[in-house]
Structure to design on (235 residues):
């Protein structure tokens, strides 16, 4: 009970500070907000290694449980989650991004960002230790500033339509960085005509490519599609 009260006090302190900070770098997408708020609702829950909810979590288990609640399946460990989505530079961090830290010889810890200030410092919620459970921390705190290894974005929010865009969670970083300017001998162009009910996400899953590539190949500025629209696919 004392641990839960302490965590709630910390939450209140963060929220009070949050309203006085620059929020220009924070995404206003309602669905991303809902995902982050769901993770925040687990503050005070106990830490348990190997657990993924609903009352006990390890760090990657909290991410797995949170995204599963919204129909998105993540890989289970923090090192595996570090291969998902797309890499994000610290200066581009937004609410909803996953942040990763070294533990020992490699990536061993993960949290989800809920606030970024004008100096690119970020706050995140994570399942940390058996003593602290699910809590909130800051990137410049001892133990996080020196062990931070990078961030990944699993979700995008279109700036025009405010609709949610999901990155292809199954595509590796090596493929994301492939040069699309020249087609090799095994690559071909084909075209797909948009049908009723199609989305960029469903089309990207069908052809096993990222949404970012679909938008680049077709010079799309938003995720809005029209029935009959022709989309170029590079395979």
């Amino acid at each position: 009970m004392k641990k839960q009260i302490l965590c709630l006090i910390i939450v209140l302190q963060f929220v009070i500070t949050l309203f006085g900070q620059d929020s220009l770098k924070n995404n206003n997408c309602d669905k991303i907000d809902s995902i982050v708020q769901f993770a925040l609702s687990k503050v005070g829950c106990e830490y348990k290694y190997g657990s993924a909810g609903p009352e006990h979590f390890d760090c990657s288990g909290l991410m797995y449980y949170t995204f599963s609640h919204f129909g998105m399946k993540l890989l289970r460990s923090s090192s595996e989650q570090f291969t998902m989505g797309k890499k994000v530079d610290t200066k581009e961090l937004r609410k909803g991004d996953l942040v990763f830290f070294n533990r020992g010889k490699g990536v061993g810890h993960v949290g989800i960002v809920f606030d970024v200030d004008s100096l690119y410092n970020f706050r995140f919620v994570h399942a940390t230790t058996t003593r602290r459970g699910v809590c909130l921390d800051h990137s410049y705190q001892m133990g996080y500033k020196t062990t931070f290894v990078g961030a990944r974005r699993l979700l995008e929010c279109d700036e025009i339509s405010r609709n949610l865009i999901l990155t292809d969670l199954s595509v590796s970083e090596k493929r994301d960085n492939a040069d699309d300017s020249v087609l090799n001998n095994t690559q071909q162009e084909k075209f797909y005509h948009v049908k009723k009910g199609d989305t960029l996400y469903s089309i990207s899953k069908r052809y096993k490519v990222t949404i970012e590539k679909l938008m680049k190949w077709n010079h799309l500025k938003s995720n809005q599609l029209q029935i009959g629209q022709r989309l170029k696919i590079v395979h």
